[in-house]
Amino acid sequence: MRGAVVAVSCSGVYSFTKPNRESITLLAGLGVEGDVHSGVTVKHRSRVAQDPTQPNLRQVHLMHEELFEEVGAAGFRVGPGELGENITARGIDLLALPVGTLLRIGDDAVVEVTGLRNPCVQIDAFQAGLLKQVVGRDADGKLVRKAGVMSVVKVGGRVRPGDAIKAELPDGPHRPLDRV
């Protein structure tokens, strides 16, 4: 499975959207250099409130650009970084990857997929009604989260728009993604 980086984003302050950058640097075991969510332990406010010693399984947030087209068909306008992701990708089905998939990005960086982003009500504060577009139910009534995947940095490196992304699936049996 292959794709490409469309945009990279980071913010040093807690904000819902993250500005696009020319490049970001991934730091092994930490996340995106200069990003508010970088660190060994959890940085997302709700997770910190529960237990600030939890390991940070949400160091790097990746989202598929195809989601923007999907929500666009429902009348919403969303661009890279606006839903808080660090890496916007195209051409790779991030949501179908199993836990433990390695994503080789650009020349050096490697992240390991840990799970799905659990979309929150801040999405509706960004655009009213958007949350229902990124969280839904399948034909069996099972909850479907579409707001990207979370990962941890295994090997650091610089990531830029245009960089290739190559997925390496873990040895089986594969575990499907769940929220982290």
UniProtKB/TrEMBL annotation:
Gene3D superfamilies listed in its UniProt record: PK beta-barrel domain-like (2.40.33.20)
Superkingdom, natural source: Bacteria
SUPFAM superfamilies: PK beta-barrel domain-like
GO molecular function, one term: pyridoxal phosphate binding
A Pfam entry, by short name: MOSC
Domain MOSC: from-to ranges: 18-168
Source organism of the structure: Streptomyces shenzhenensis
InterPro entries on file: MoCF_Sase_C, MOSC_domain, Pyrv_Knase-like_insert_dom_sf
Name of the protein in question: MOSC domain-containing protein
